Amino acid sequence: MLTAISTSSSTVFLSSSKSISNLSPTILHPSQNYKHQTFAKNAAFAVRCEAVEVAAAATSKKKKRYEIENLTTWLLKQEQAGHIDAELTIVLSSISLACKQIASLLQRSSIINLTGTQGTINIQGEDQKKLDVISNELFCNCLRSTGRTGVIASEEEDVPVAVEETYSGNYIVVFDPIDGSANIDIALTTGSIFGIYAPDEQCLVDYDDDTLDEAKEKCIISVCQPGSNLLAAGYCLYSSSVVFTLSIGNGVYGFTLDPAYGEFVLTHEDIKIPNPGRKIYSFNEGNYDLWSDKLKKYLDHLRQPGSNGKPYSGRYIGCLVGEIHRMLLYGGIYGNPDNENAKNGNLRLLYECAPMSYLVEQAGGRAIDGHQRILDIVPKQVHQRTPIFIGSADEIEKLEKYLE
């Protein structure tokens, strides 16, 4: 007689005189009944197959502990899944290469005399650091070499640059090559920000011609799109680790540069901002007296002890990339509001606020200018500035009540 006994991994059949081991089945006790013999043989085969599957699963699970997924592999998987096309894969890869080069220069900047100013001023009237200029060139060269980029707009360029070599290029790439460049000379956190758009029509003009003719005006118009049109956006953080974070519209993913072999490795999968998160706020409170009374009341509230007897913690890095990176992992709120001396705020909409707002919304957060969603604002100028409040959804909702 055969009896079925259930175990956690399989069902083991026992005869009246011998038992079958769960993972090492032996021959069943012979029976005078042929049906019982056949049934027992099938049972032994089933247990043997189950044992092989369990062993294989255990081996597979063990291997996964040592598996890594780099950025290139991840991008190819996204392409295979139909989330992006091959051309966008190439553009994103070229941006990651530019970030690796910038990271290397930053680490050696004091050694190879790349600290200090270049002696030039950008379109915003800001003194350019040496690495501002070099990083801009690195980004432009990497993007031009792909043959997939049609237009480039940078914080360091007066007008968008149409890449004449890439007549088949379809993508508009906007970027800030070095965010927080004031931190370079003192070796604090810096970063790069980028966003990728698809143009409404091809924009090809001679970027060596300084006259703003009709063709260039069309080029500028095609660049000035709302953040809601972004196809992809991201940043690269240069700090104790180099972290390349991006979204292609299906979540936010972070890749940390492994210096041992120079690859970005997936370390933060499908990032979601904690809600509620840590009680952290980040504002440049040196401008407190220049802000509106409503905003002052909000900040006064944050500095008051809460139900746990503790106020919010104030953190200010002076680098948008660093602020957003912390927020994605810990939550909280960051603000760069307008004030009496900067009626439109300090940050640029197209290549700073829009890409970061895109990332934060993909991670479950929100971004507003105090009145409307950042991603809904249509830029009228390439270097247009905007106030911004960005953070976890509950923190932005609390802020809105004070700004009403």
TrEMBL record:
Protein's cellular compartments: Plastid, Chloroplast
Broad enzyme group: hydrolase
Main location: plastid
GO cellular component: chloroplast; cytosol
Pfam families referenced in this protein's UniProt entry, alphabetically: FBPase (PF00316), FBPase_C (PF18913)
InterPro entries: FBPase_C_dom, FBPase_class-1, FBPase_N, FBPtase
GO biological process: fructose 1,6-bisphosphate metabolic process; fructose 6-phosphate metabolic process; fructose metabolic process; gluconeogenesis; reductive pentose-phosphate cycle; sucrose biosynthetic process
UniProt entry tagged with the keyword Magnesium: yes
SUPFAM superfamilies named in the record: Carbohydrate phosphatase
Essential cofactor(s): Mg(2+)
Signal sequence extent: none
Keyword Transmembrane recorded: no
Catalytic activity: beta-D-fructose 1,6-bisphosphate + H2O = beta-D-fructose 6-phosphate + phosphate
Transmembrane parts of this sequence: none
Pathway(s) where this gene product acts: Carbohydrate biosynthesis; Calvin cycle
GO molecular function: fructose 1,6-bisphosphate 1-phosphatase activity; metal ion binding
Alphabetically ordered keywords of this record: Calvin cycle, Carbohydrate metabolism, Chloroplast, Disulfide bond, Hydrolase, Magnesium, Metal-binding, Plastid, Transit peptide
Enzyme Commission number(s): 3.1.3.11
Similarity remark: Belongs to the FBPase class 1 family.
Assembly and interaction partners: Homotetramer.
PANTHER family in UniProt: FRUCTOSE-1,6-BISPHOSPHATASE-RELATED, FRUCTOSE-BISPHOSPHATASE
Protein name: fructose-bisphosphatase
